[in-house]
Design a protein that fits this description.
Distance between the termini: 79 Å
Bound molecules: pyridoxal-5'-phosphate
Low-confidence stretches: none
CATH topology of the largest domain: Aspartate Aminotransferase, domain 2
Radius of gyration: 24 Å
Number of domains: 2
CATH superfamily of the largest domain: Type I PLP-dependent aspartate aminotransferase-like (Major domain)
Structural class: alpha/beta
CATH architecture of the largest domain: 3-Layer(aba) Sandwich
């Protein structure tokens, strides 16, 4: 008898996708790097969106966490030094889907005070980073099996692009952006078009502060205009806020969460303010949803049910470690709750602010003489600037990216992959004249970091001048 060595399932009708666009892009990099190195070129990192190693050294975080854990043990007041502290037992045991209550209480307090919004710790659901939050909300709305239309920006975050259309009955209706955010009339039109085509429209996903990849923050007026339409048409705003503390302004626009917590589902992540590895995140909303029998229920209750059927158990030790970050030690070594997460952000902002300035100054110096040919966004928050070729004969396709790496050692990300399909239908050249430049990552620290950043920007400008046939004027 012929026994197959593996089970073979005929799944062609499922239209399963093999690899995501983003993974494909990162998979091709090592080969390109090797080509650059073979040409004797150093690699200039202007592509990766990772937090900088200089501000994510885990050793300081671990030392602080250990001290905080000792503080928690001491606070239990057990006189027997050999006894297992209760918090520690719980930190490594199965826990509730909501995770430790104290972590949520402290976070609700600190974050609520930073953004002037009242956060109910009972509605604060831990997620596996913002990625887990995106997945949780999508899963909630996918459950009934009706065709869904997600409204999002063109361009939009690659992680959302990939997750949102995981279910083949879901589709993206995208909204083009200008320098202030999504265009309100098109936002309205896309919601109405999706409904007219028979879709249920649960939410609009966006990144209003330090948009990844668009390299802008939305103006306050634009937030208000979008919010007014979302309210009028009954669409939630899914606000992804990884860069809310990586902000270079003194005056910051309010997040949608603060403008209207009943219209917003907010995603917090610990990845940029802390470390990405522990996968800390929270989802929060005061929104009510009308479900069967015209019942109104908090979306938080539905999300919690969804979460308990998905990950079920949180990682309590990681959440307690994050709770440590929400505390500081005074000069006498006594722990107290922080007044603000801006205290933590301040140290990171030193590095990102410097890198951002080096990028903007370098671009101005290297390419600023041709304002009719090159444009770049001035990011008010986040890690990215979008560079646009204003002349029509440059196409930033894969071949262009490969040339930048192999001939100049410069790694940047092409923008076309961040545009949803419908945006490409509207404009087949969407993103085909744009690059995403990131200024968050180098392999070095301190003065060497600054030098690496400066050199990388200069190499980028040299490459662009050379490709477009320009002579440096100074
Ligand atoms: C807009 C956006 N959302 C989500 C994420 C992923 O965040 P997390 O590590 O919290 O899953 C990123 C990371 O770069 C991001 O830029």
């Amino acid at each position: 008898m012929n026994v197959p060595s593996r089970v073979s399932l005929n799944a062609k009708d499922l239209q399963l996708q093999e690899v995501s666009v983003t993974r494909k892009m990162s998979a091709s990099l090592p080969k390109l790097r090797a080509a650059a190195e073979a040409n004797g070129l150093p690699i200039h990192h202007l592509g990766a969106g990772y937090p900088h190693p200089e501000v994510t050294d885990p050793r300081g975080f671990i030392a602080h966490q250990n001290a905080y854990f000792e503080h928690l043990a001491a606070a239990e007041g057990n006189n027997d030094p050999a006894a297992l502290p209760e918090f520690l037992r719980e930190a490594y045991a199965y826990t509730d889907t909501l995770g430790p209550r104290q972590t949520r209480e402290v976070f609700a307090d600190v974050y609520g005070s930073d953004w002037q919004v009242t956060i109910d710790p009972d509605r604060l659901i831990p997620t596996v980073g913002a990625t887990g939050g995106i997945s949780l909300v999508c899963a909630l709305f996918e459950r009934p099996g009706v065709p869904l239309a997600y409204i999002t920006d063109a361009p939009t975050y690659a992680g959302f692009l990939v997750r949102s259309v995981l279910t083949q009955s879901s589709q993206i209706f995208s909204v083009d952006m200008d320098s202030e955010g999504p265009i309100p009339e098109q936002f309205r039109a896309q919601i109405l078009a999706a409904r007219a085509a028979g879709f249920f429209v649960p939410f609009y996903y966006t990144v209003p502060d330090g948009h990844n990849p668009a390299g802008i923050s939305f103006s306050t007026q634009r937030r208000l205009d979008i919010l007014a339409i979302a309210r009028e048409l009954g669409v939630l705003i899914l606000e992804d806020a990884p860069y809310i503390y990586i902000d270079y302004n003194d005056e910051r626009p309010k997040p949608f969460l603060a403008l209207d917590p009943m219209q917003t589902v907010h995603l917090f992540t610990g990845s940029k303010i802390g470390l990405p590895g522990p996968r800390i995140g929270f989802i929060y909303s005061d929104a009510l949803l009308e479900i069967a029998d015209q019942q109104q229920v908090p979306i938080a209750d539905l999300l919690l049910t969804e979460s308990s059927s998905d990950i079920l158990f949180q990682n309590p030790a990681a959440l307690r470690g994050f709770e440590g970050l929400l505390h500081k030690q005074d000069d006498a070594g006594v722990f107290q709750q922080r007044e603000s997460l801006w205290e933590v952000a301040a140290k990171k902002l030193v590095v990102y602010r410097e890198n951002r300035e080096l990028l903007l100054d370098g671009l101005q110096e290297g390419l600023g003489d041709w304002p009719d040919e090159f444009h770049w966004t001035v990011p008010e928050a986040g890690f990215f600037s979008v560079f646009t070729f204003l002349r029509p004969d440059i196409t930033t396709d894969d071949a262009f990216i490969e040339k930048l790496v192999a001939q100049y050692g410069v790694v940047v990300i092409p923008m076309y992959g961040f545009y949803p399909e419908d945006a490409k239908d509207r404009d087949p050249r969407a993103g085909m004249n744009q690059l995403r430049i990131s200024f968050c990552f180098t392999e070095s620290a301190g003065a060497a970091r600054r030098e690496d950043m400066r050199t990388a920007v200069a190499a980028f400008c040299d490459a662009i001048r050379s490709i477009t046939g320009k002579q440096a004027k100074r």
